[in-house]
Design brief:
The chain is an alpha/beta fold. It has 2 domains: 223 residues, 3-Layer(aba) Sandwich (UDP-N-acetylmuramoyl-L-alanine:D-glutamate ligase), CATH 3.40.1190.10; 134 residues, Mur ligase, C-terminal domain (Protein-Tyrosine Phosphatase, Chain A, Alpha-Beta Complex). The protein has 15 helices and 17 strands. Strands 4-3-2-5-1-6-7-8 form an 8-stranded mixed beta sheet, with helices on both faces. A 6-stranded mixed beta sheet has the order 12-13-17-14-15-16, with helices on both faces. A 3-stranded antiparallel beta sheet has the order 9-10-11. A hairpin with a 2-residue loop joins β12 and β13. α3 crosses α9, α4 packs across α5 and α7 runs parallel beside α8. The longest helix is centred in the first third of the chain and has 20 residues.
Amino acid sequence: MSYDEAVKYILDIPRFTRKNDAVHTKTFLKYLGNPQEDLKILHVAGTNGKGSVCVYLDAMLRSEGKHTGLFTSPHLERMNERIVIDGVQIGDGEFEQIFRETLAAVSRMQKEGMPHPTFFEFLFGMALLAFSKAGAEYAVLETGLGGRLDATNAVEHPLASVITSIGMDHMEYLGDTLEKIAGEKAGIIKPGVPVFYAQTCEESDCVIRQTAEKRRCFCKKIGKDAYEILGIRDKHIAFSCVNAYYGNTTWKLNNIGVYQPGNALLAMEVIRFLFGENGHPQQWRSALAEVKWAGRMEEILPDIYVDGAHNISAVDAFAESVPESGKGNVILFSAVRGKEYREMIACLCRKVQADLYVVTQIGDRRAAGAETLGRLFEEYTDRPVVVKESVKDALRYVMENRRGRTVYCLGSLYLTGEIKGLIREVKQNAEL
């Protein structure tokens, strides 16, 4: 089976399977040889920022000379993005080989009457198998949805449980209050395993603290006042830490998102706990400054940014990160059904000064209609709103009508992936 056939097989999984419980995932891992038992695992859950925290953890571990595996989701352009070993996405040949071994394990399971793993389960199993075969010492795992019922929660003995900020998202699955959502995220907390979490609000913080207490875990909150943003310059954000451990060091991130210092500090505190006096903060500092996390306030062309903000709390954080400038701004937006896109649109129109809004429809079956989104923008702004049915047409319109203004594309990670793919195609054609 070729690489393309392997990818197609995985994408087709939702057509003939259903969500499985934790017992099934553990059985699946057993058929793979329990690759997780070879790894020191950091398990990360949360509503927003968990992908960023994961890449920061991975970068600092590698700065300490550790061999690492990194499992994140979703991918933006290619499935390989989800499985990273020592900072490098696995190649197509390696992906194909790991797929074959995973599929063989699944076939043995099915012969014994067990259901096929889900799309996410299958990729999770592939990642752990790839990490184990590569000789990774540490693995950083990002949950897919929630935490308590997530496939990654089949890992029983992580080194630390990490929970990023909590917000209103996936309410149909996780609950309609911050307390309920936090309860699902806190489901990754294991007895006696240290917990590190980002301060969000008392409703969610309390749930995490109480869960940690019940399970007798060391628990540390990373407060919003634990760092100070020093400024944004040359597309980098600089910050300092209140904790005396870090001294007067200025830390820099290759990003302009004002929410990223909080994510970085959460990861820093986990690494500090792991390495203690044997750690090398100056090496962490250099590693963090080099991290580029795709789709998170990422500048893909001069003054054209893509951001994966796809819920109200993420859009609010995005709005806080848009710098004031005399150039003016253009917003390119799309979303999927089931999201609170009315609230997202209202927030954008209220908090971001834009001269033009371009609305489009992503190429996914769950896409919200462009006309529907366009009408909502017209409710909240008196600025021009242009509706384009395809992302390609929307991007072309923006490029032809930006007039030197800064462009921000957001509302869905699917939109981010499509735009990055289109830009890559243009660059490749220009090189031919």
